[in-house]
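Hello again, I could really use a second opinion on something today. I've been staring at a protein lately and its backbone has me curious. Can you walk me through what the tokens say about the fold? Take your time with it, there's no hurry, and the full record follows here:
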Amino acid sequence: MTHRRPAAGAPTIEREETRLTGNEHDTARITAPARLRQQAPRRPERWAGGSGGRGATLRDGAPGRREGGRTVGGLTRPGAFSDGDTTTELVILVDDDSRLLPPPQRSGGGRRDTSPGPVETGPDTTGPFLAPLGHNPALDGLRAFAVLAVIGYHAGLSWVPGGLLGVDLFFVLSGFLITGLLIAEYRATRRIDLRDFWIRRVRRLLPALLLLLVAVAAYAKFIAAPADVAKIRMDALASLFYVANWRFALSDQSYFDHFSAPSPLLHTWSLAVEEQFYVLWPLIVFLLMRHSARTVDRWKGQRQKAQSAALTVAVLGAEASALIGLVLLVLGTDPSRIYYGTETRVQALLTGAALAVWRAQRKQLPSERGKKMLSWAGVAAAGALLVIWATVDGESRGLYAGGFLGVAVIVAVLVAAVVEVPNSPIARVLSFGPLTYIGKISYGLYLWHWPVFLAMSASRTGLTGVPLLLARLAVTLAFTLLSYYLVENPIRRQRVRVPMPLVTTPAAIAAVVVLALVATNTSGSSARTPADLERLAREVQEAGRTLPPGSPDAAGNAPLRMLVAGDSLATTLLASEFADVAARMNVQVADATMLGCGVARLPIRRIEGQAGPLTTGCENWPARFTQRVREVDPDIAVLLVGRWEVVDQQFEGRWTRVGDPEYDAYLGRELDLAISTLSARGARVVLFTTPAFAAREAADGSQFPETRIERVVRFNQLLRAAAERHPGVASVADLAGVLTPGDRYTDRIDGILTRDDGVHITAEGGRLAGEALLPEIVQQARPTSTERTPVVTTTAPG
């Protein structure tokens, strides 16, 4: 900007500006209100970007000299602070004696106060002015390692199980850099322009997110499974309004996560946490630092108190956040709630904020010995971080018991080392060219990699292992570069001028909302969300407590009573049109199902690579079956299990699976017990074969073993063998032949959607099953329904 020099002695309008200059040279200005003062001619003095933590050191930018606290001639002082996207560069008009002129105050009635404010001269006694930090390539290198760790974790690389903690590195960096900008602006202009701060955040983050949401809408329309579409709709809206973390924390979908694909927007939870921090933390800093000092001494004193208060709030806030997480863990809260919650994850952001305030508050620069110690501390912190990434995973209880705060402190030490000692070994490593470039585009890489990984599955690409990973990375990089150079950079640099942004920005958001709603429209579809399945289970259990009313049919036959027992597959069968078909055949249906519970009762099982305990209450199924048999006195007892019998189980201290002779023998005993229990009052037991499940892929493209068809085929053989051991009591109905003919998974039969999530049965799928299987079952049961005699069993339930 060019400043016109007024005539000597003439009244001048003086403006103080904060110029925000990005790493890629984009510029935005923060201009303090003008004030009218009678003064001598003034000269602009530029506070340009510095590095290495140097204070208000003077450099000759034009002829000049330092005399007794006065500056004579043109000078340039380092005083910039960068967040990696924007660098604060102050352009301040000063008197010939180099007095800093503070921004104006408002007098009553909204009129500008033109009286002189406090004038500051001499050295800054509350810390190096602006805590100067120019663009530091090592910080871009840190971003690169963070995003690569997250990508490695999502790619299923076994040597980075803790790669998810790369998000915490992002959090600490964000808290450090954003707080540094706020402190720098405050100390330079005695104000914080919140509006401009939030506009910069929106311009930096929103365009790429909108583009991603458009792509995810296409994914939902053309690729996603029917059961996932409605979930994607809510995820997209939550991501757009930066509340995705609470959407995932409070959705209570942990059980059904095994039966639906992960959300393509699952990773946006971290963006939500950061945006919530960007809204609240600047307000807190603004309130802490707001003042109306009229003298330099008061200004310095209040400034020091404000910075001390900000440091205290940041430190105590981080500790409180960690403590809340620990309390929730002790209370038995689901770890996913702790992982996603803002109040439990803000500890990393506040740790970075505390580092920034400390850096601005300190009164002495590190000595040479201090720099050397800090340099080695940075190396140690980097090593510790790599060890943590290689050994800790998201299931580690220690993370939720203070571990997140410990990781944040380690990252803060690393950040301090590369900032304070820019020539340290670790800083030089992190400043490696390719790393810094990856760091610059890390936002796009983070946004695009996860939905690309989901869309490019092994079944769609025909690739697995390293070839699949390379293909995914290539497509991710392509989308990232297109977004970076065609959308993000032009808007951030303001090369693309958005006309009437107050109108066009809300219009763009509204357009994306409409597109997401249209693309995820599930009207006319029987697709169910995980929440729908939970609701169905409650409804089935409530309705199945008593038999529906019935009366003799036209032939005078009394209604048949049918008890359906099993896991969630049986639950959805009961909730489908299967019950309607049964009612038309004068069959009354009652419920004895329980989500997550088959007949296998081993304490530990593994699904999708994660070991976990048996669902609470499953070990009591014999007693539950016995009680329901007494209450219903069924003519027919249907057993539909298999989902949990085909997963890996821990049997007698070792992992085993169906097909292992010892485990097969165990399953045979459990099936015998189920048949005896269900037939205790003379009911005919019908074992429904288990239909094939949709293949589910691990992160590296390999198929999870519990979805392999050979396991289901083997379990159905065990069912038939069990029926043969109970002649006249048990028989087999081939549900698998109806829903998955030829033992090949399909979600549609003759154009009818029969399975909406790869496991559970839809309403119309249940109708097909009922029409195919019930006539023979009823025919076998009705002639003997009035002559039933109890079957004596020597095996006691339990």
In short: Residues 338 and 408 are 16 Å apart (CA to CA). The first helix runs from residue 137 to 154.
